[in-house]
Amino acid sequence: MREILAALLTGFIFGLGLCLSNMTNPAVVQGFLDIAGAWNPTLAFVMAGGVAVTFIGYRIVLPKGRPLWAPKFLLPAATAIDASLISGAAIFGIGWGLAGYCPGPAVVSLASGRAAVLIFVLFMLAGMILVRWMRVRLSATMPRTPIRERSA
Amino acid sequence: MHPYLLALIGGALIGLSAVLLMAFSGRIAGISGIVAGLLPPKPADDMAWRVAFIVGLLLVPVVLALFAGDDRIGAPTVGLSLLIAAGFLVGAGSALGNGCTSGHGICGLSRLSPRAAAAVATFMATAMITVFVVRHVL
Q1: Amino acid B58: pLDDT
Q2: Looking at the 3D structure of chain B, how many domains does it have?
Q3: Set of chain B residues whose Cβ sits within 8 Å of the Cβ of A46
Q4: Which residues 41-60 on chain B approach chain A with CB closer than 8 angstroms?
Q5: Beta strands in B39-79 (DSSP E)
Q6: Could you report the predicted ipTM of this complex, rounded to two decimals?
Q7: Which among A10, A86, A94 is the nearest to B89, CB-wise?
Q8: Calpha distance B133→A6 (Å, rounded)
Q9: Which DSSP helix (H) or strand (E) runs through B101?
């Protein structure tokens, strides 16, 4: 129950950050990506604010050894810079550039009730399902990223 | 308020969310991973908090519209066929690369993960090239 409350609260704060910073406006996101046009630096400020707070916050939280309401910190264990990481990131970037939506802003924008956003999200889910299905089929060659359990 | 200052504050709120989720539940605030864990085949066995996080995201425009009179959601910039292609690429790419702008960009970079840095450099480059080609070449 407490974990659900924490998720609801942090989801709301995350969404508020996206909306206040204009990341839920794809024209602003594409304006950042358009370095040869009328460049809009907004996204750089979002990244700077986000990384600064998270960098400091993680350094306070992680040394405590365990989270307040859960038994363990669940951190990605993968360290390899491999073909699936790079090809996945490259494919993701092409989609992000085409429409100006990454997953967070797309999900938040669903609440505006626009059918076009719903269609984007449905195809995003389809892409995720396809890759997850392929991973199950090819689990020997494309292992899922294991989760490292960290305690102090 | 100046949009750049709002962007800095908004970014800080995203960071606060990531820190609180780690502090309370020990989890990375990566949206693509949170969403993908709900999907077949083999959905994660911890669906409740994932749904709750997404409900939290969806509440924001509703609350903003009610109390600020503006949900701050912009209109799509491209037509349906491009949205369909882009949606599919964003979903498949983030699943294959194990993360998106939040998981790799905010959480991964903050952990000084070389893997996240490689992913961010790659998707920033292909996104910028894509916008360049669409806006200035085609």
Answers
A1: 98
A2: 1
A3: 7-8, 10-11, 14
A4: 41-42, 48-50, 52-60
A5: none
A6: 0.98
A7: A94
A8: 42
A9: none
In sequence order, the 6+-apart residues with CB closer than 8 A to the CB of A144 are A135
CB contact under 8 A, A85 and B18: no
Range of the domain at A108: 2-150
Question: What CA–CA distance (Å, rounded) separates A45 from A42?
Answer: 5
* Whether A4 and B52 lie within 8 Å, measured CB to CB: yes
Please give the residue range of the domain that contains residue B54.
3-137
- Which of chain B's residues have a Cβ under 8 Å away from the Cβ of A119? 80, 83-84, 87
Q: CA B88, CA B93: separation in Å to the nearest integer?
A: 8
Predicted confidence at residue B1, as pLDDT, reads 87
- Inter-axis angle of helices A2-20 and B3-25, nearest 10: 170
Of B134, B15, B118, B8, nearest to A41 by C-alpha is B8
A74 forms beta bridges with A149
From B75, which residue of chain A is nearest by alpha-carbon distance? A25
DSSP codes, A44-102: HHHHHHHHHHHHHHHHHHGGGSS-SSSSSEEEE------HHHHHHHHHHHHHHHHHS--
* Per-residue pLDDT tens over the stretch B86-121: 999 999 999 999 999 999 999 999 999 999 999 999
What CA–CA distances, in Å, run from A135 to A3, A62, A109, B44, B132? 28, 31, 29, 14, 32
Put simply, the answer to whether A98 touches B89 (Cβ < 8 Å) is yes
Confidence (pLDDT) at A143: 55
Residue A147 in 3-state DSSP?
strand
The beta-carbon neighbor of B7 closest among A14, A22, A62 is A22
Chain A residues with CB-CB distance to B2 below 8 A: none
SS3 category, A149? strand
Pick from A98, A94, A23: which is nearest to B83 by CA?
A98
Domain count, chain A: 1
